[in-house]
From TrEMBL:
Keyword Isomerase: yes
Domain of life of the organism encoding this protein: Bacteria
UniProt KW keywords: Isomerase
The Xylose isomerase-like TIM barrel domain, residue ranges: 22-248
The protein's name in its UniProt record: Sugar phosphate isomerase/epimerase family protein
Pfam families given in the database record: AP_endonuc_2 (PF01261)
Length: 252
């Protein structure tokens, strides 16, 4: 498996210096980055910097709305960047209200998937906890989504932190969707005194990270993507510590 980082983690840094942040990420030993926006830079320019730094485009998070409005443009950007995966990061609250809203989302995902498949890209969905606590047709919405859309139409980027927070097993989900999970958001979770979930550096929370990595390795995962929604110290220091933790605890 390859180790990447979700650039949302370092959004404070990319806002100041997008390319300089990529340079620092490459120096830390990450093999790729997962985009969450392109810093208003042309894809051709970004591709040149990725090649110069020896970084791969692990994929890109693109909103459902952006994909519905301009799937062709998003596909073209990812093709230019040399990546494989376009990922819907969430659906907004107005689309989580009832089964009919979810079914509409499933239909929209199916239409977007056709565009990605035609271009030779893989279309994915990234979960939070609400896809596991909301139910559609008697099952968690994420499972209903996976049932409604074939594995050729839709892959899953499992966020192990939010699976755990929903009271379910990340390892079991990786095993359940074997060969359908090319990417994992690899992160750790702790709870604040008031019960609020906190994403923390690897090894400082409650997730069974080594078991998750082993399951990922055994079940066809291509990328472990380091992400922290919020960092307790500087974001660059956090992802540097996370990369070091992986070196020390995983045989990757």
């Amino acid at each position: 498996m390859k180790i990447g980082v979700q650039l949302y983690t370092v959004r404070d840094e990319t806002e100041k210096d997008f390319i300089g942040t990529l340079e620092k990420i490459a120096e830390m030993g990450y093999e790729g980055v997962e985009f969450a926006g392109y810093g208003d830079l042309p894809a051709t320019e970004l591709r040149g910097h990725l090649d110069r730094l020896g970084l791969q485009a692990a994929g890109s998070h693109v909103s459902l709305e952006a994909m519905l409005e301009d799937a062709d443009g998003q596909v073209a950007a990812m093709k230019t960047l040399g990546g494989t995966y376009l990922i819907i990061p969430f659906v907004d609250e107005s689309k989580r209200e009832d089964e009919a809203a979810w079914i509409e989302v499933f239909e929209q995902l199916g239409r977007i998937s056709e565009k990605c498949q035609e271009a030779g890209l893989q279309f994915c969905y990234h979960n939070h906890d609400f896809e596991l606590t909301s139910h559609v047709q008697g099952m968690p919405a994420l499972d209903a989504m996976a049932k409604h859309l074939s594995s050729q139409q839709l892959k899953l980027e499992l966020d192990v932190c939010w699976i755990q927070h929903a009271g379910l097993s990340p390892v079991s989900y990786i095993q359940q969707y074997r060969q359908r999970v090319p990417l994992i958001h690899y992160k750790d979770l702790a709870l604040a005194e008031d019960g609020t979930p906190l994403t923390v550096e690897l090894g400082k929370g409650q997730l069974p990270l080594q078991a998750i990595a082993a399951a990922a390795d055994q079940n066809g995962v291509e990328w472990l993507i380091v992400e922290q929604d919020e960092c307790q110290i500087g974001s660059l220091d956090s992802i540097r510590n996370n990369r070091q933790w992986i070196r020390q605890h995983l045989s990757l």
